Amino acid sequence: MVKVPPQNLEAEKSVLGSILLDKNALIEVSGWLRPEHFYDERHSLIYINILELFESGLPIDLVTVSDKLKRKKILTKVGGRAYLTELASFVPTTAHAEEYADIIKETATRRGLISSASEITQLSFDETQDISQVIDKSESLIFDVAQAGIKSHFFHIKELLKDAYERASHAKESDDYSGISTGFRELDVLLGGFQRSDLIIIAARPSVGKTSLALDMMRHAALLEKKNIAFFSLEMSNMQIMDRLLGMQSGIPFWEIRTNKLTEEKVVKLANTMGELADANIFVDDTAGQHINQVRTKSRRLALEQGVDLVVVDYLQLMHGNTKESRTLEVGEISQGLKNLAKELNIPVIALSQLSRAIE
Predict the structure, then answer these.
(1) What tens digit of pLDDT does each residue of 136-165 get?
(2) How many Å apart are CA 233 and CA 240, to the nearest integer?
(3) Radius of gyration of the chain measured on its C-alpha atoms
(4) Residue 339: which of 303, 282, 305, 295 has the closest Cα?
(5) What is the per-residue pLDDT across 185-195, written as a single tens digit (0 to 9) for each?
(6) DSSP readout, 64-101?
């Protein structure tokens, strides 16, 4: 008897119904629920078109989704307007959209494991393959399944302070500007602070202090102006970011924090500094190699859950886009995506950019 692959059509219908009734349900799940997670092809097609509407900034409801599917000539293929109406009426409550999506992702992961297991079995039977290559390929297949659809996870700075303290133990008020103060008076006079909907590019060649400058600016905004900051660190880890912030705030060189060179007096000073930083609403995401759509989705979700006043990306060239014709076009697409994010959330977005040493 042929077994039916793991799936839960009720959960698929419920999450789509939730999205059709409440756009916020999409914000809850779009960062990690992908079209290929759906077992029913109709549901996958509907979700793809919902995402396209969302990325275009258009409303999402029965009328707009139905119209988009109709213009693509696939409305009948997904069951027609009647099926969309059925989805909207099927869901008992939109409040559980994330739980429905969790079920969908779990069944998709199980299907992925089954597929990977089948491929691993074939590799293992092929005696022409070197065993080390078989093991490497098998690990890669399982890892890909595990990584697929991982949820975004910001770490509040309080979550990082304990580890930072353990590592360290072992080893003027802002002026009133219309925007968020940069922390530098002369720059604030010129710019009026970081303005809403602006994309600010801080560009310089490697190793001249772009990250330190950005961290100092967001530290000032978080501590003195009580702003909520989202920091996407595509190069440095949470640990490295935390050490730098602690060094800036305490005045203790961060290399001392990392190399167990602290005197007892400095350990006490560092502990006091952690108390100051614990009140800062800085949210750090150190996921490497993020896609521009992931950054936008995570920022939207943070805006919904916590509120966000400033987004900082370090750095632009480490992100990925959809354009594959050339890296120049891809970076242009990423920049436009960040500008759209600034406009959509009505906040300033700062992106660090690395210039080539060839300019020298």
Answers:
(1) 678 778 867 776 655 656 666 666 666 666
(2) 10
(3) 24
(4) 295
(5) 888 888 888 88
(6) HHHHHHHHTT-TTTTTHHHHHHHHHHH-S-GGGHHHHH
Question: Would you state the structure tokens that stand for residue 108, as one six-digit string?
Answer: 């998709």
Beta carbons within 8 Å of 315's beta carbon, 6+ residues apart: 210, 211, 234, 235, 351, 352, 353, 354
Extract the tokens encoding 230.
């989202």
Grouping H, G, I as helix, E, B as strand and the rest as coil, residue 291 is strand
DSSP string, 162-219: HHHHHHHHH-------SSB--S-HHHHHHH-SBPTT-EEEEEE-TTSSHHHHHHHHHH
pLDDT top residue among 196 and 47 = 47
List, by residue number, the catalytic residues: 235
> Please, are residues 141 and 261 in contact by the beta-carbon 8 Å criterion?
no
281-321: pLDDT as tens digits: 899 998 888 888 788 878 888 887 888 999 999 888 888 88
* Closest to 24 measured CA to CA, from 324, 346, 297: 297
Give the number of C-alpha atoms closer than 13 A to the C-alpha of residue 217, restricted to the C-beta side.
Answer: 30
Taking 50 as the threshold, does the pLDDT of residue 174 lie above it?
Answer: no
66 within 8 A of 84, measured Cβ to Cβ: yes
DSSP state, 349? E
Answer positive or negative: Cα dihedral of 180, 182, 184, 190. Answer: negative
- pLDDT recorded at residue 83: 95
**Burial annotation 269-304 (CB, 10 A radius, 16+ → b, else e):** ebeebbeebeebbbbbbbeeebebbbbbbbbbbbbe
Note the pLDDT of residue 258: 72
Position 167 scores a pLDDT of 56
At 272, the amino acid letter reads N
Specify whether the CB–CB gap between 360 and 205 falls below 8 A: yes
Query: Structural domains in the chain?
Result: 1-151 (1.10.860.10), 155-359 (3.40.50.300)
Burial 131-156 (b: 16+ CB within 10 A, else e): eeebeeebeebeeebeeebeebebee
* Rounded Cα–Cα distance for residues 300 and 154 (Å): 13
Please give the backbone phi and psi of residue 206, each rounded to the nearest 5 degrees, phi first: -60, 145
